[in-house]
Every structure is written in structure tokens, then in C-alpha cells.
Amino acid sequence: MEDQSQLSEETISDKIYLIRNQKVMLDTDLAALYEVETKRLNEQVKRNLSRFPEDFMFQLTENEYHSSRSQIATLKNGRGSNLKYLPFAFTEHGILMLSSVLKSDKAIQTNIQIMRIFTKVRQMLLDTTEIKVDILQIQKKLENHDKNIELVFSYLDELTDKKAKKLPE
Asked: CB–CB of 22/54 below 8 Å?
């Protein structure tokens, strides 16, 4: 595993996936970042299950696992095609809660970095939404301009027709 100081934004953000319309990280990726075995991470979670309601953590279904394999290449690593256990997905709140059950300095520092990345991702999504709204407003203005231009040409055609009718032959 990389040294803590070398954990880049990209390393962490590449492990954030969209599953069930939520940004999540998988138990295997989190365990690797925290430098613990996935089994140990999940043991701590199971010992503290009351801290992880459904909106903090959920287990992937077989269908989600198989349909997500192309998005989540890491599922292949260390798990193979025959799964003994389906992976757990942790939402931002679940990852934050992990810091209360994984008390090592490594876990704490990694959690801080992950929370910063989630904050940046959220801000990027907000910025993207604002840009989309601006684009929609521009499109509406252009549609109105197109209608106005058509109207102007229509009037010009009428004027041209009237002028042509008034001219003596």
C-alpha cells in the first residue's frame, strides 16, 4: 500500500462509485486504504452494527455486483468470480462512522482525507448543476431568438409579397 502522504486525491476518488444513486466506497477499497484486512474491517462493523443503519452501509446484491463489475474493477481483485461474501458499500456517513470503530492513526488520517474528497465531489456536483442550469437558460434564450428570427423573416416575406403585388407589370 502507498504511504499515507502519497495517497492522492485520484487514488481515493477512483474508489468512489455510484451505486443505488449514492456515492459509496466498498469494504475492500476502504480496507486497503486503512491497511487492514477486509475481514477485520467487516468484523469491527459487525461488532458495532447499530452504528451502521441502511443509509450508512448496505451489502451489494448479486445483481448489483455482477452489473457493477465493469465500473468496479477492484471487485475482481482478490475475490475472483466465485464470491463467498458480497461486498459492503459505505456511504459518506458510513465512512465517517468507520472512524469511530477503527481507531488506528492510519484509519483516522485516511478518513480525514476521504471526507475531504467527498466534500470536493459534492462541490463539483453543485458546480456542474449550476452550469447545467445556465446552459438550459441559454438554450431557452436561443429558442426564443430562433422564433423571433423566424417571425422577422415571415414579416419580410409578407412585405416582399406586398411590394411585388404593388409593382406595375
From this structure: no
Answer with the residue of higher pLDDT: 69 or 38: 38
- What does residue 35 show for φ and ψ, rounded to 5 degrees? 60, 45
Helix axes 38-47, 27-34, angle to 10 degrees: 110
| Sequence-distant (≥ 6) Cβ neighbours of residue 21 within 8 angstroms | none
Cell of 26: 466498498
Question: How is the chain split among helix, strand and coil, in percent rounded to 5?
Answer: 65, 10, 25
Give the mean model confidence (pLDDT) for residues 72-100. 73
Q: How far is CA 129 from CA 16, 119, 133, 134, 166, in A?
A: 19, 15, 6, 9, 56
pTM of the model: 0.61
Residue with cell string 485520484: 10
Distance between CA atoms of 64 and 70, rounded to whole angstroms? Answer: 11
Distances (CA, A) of 20 to 90, 94, 115: 12, 15, 20
**Contact predicate 98/90, CB 8 Å:** yes
Q: Please, are residues 87 and 65 in contact by the beta-carbon 8 Å criterion?
A: yes
> What is the grid cell recorded at 115?
471526507
CA 69 from chain center: how many Å? 16
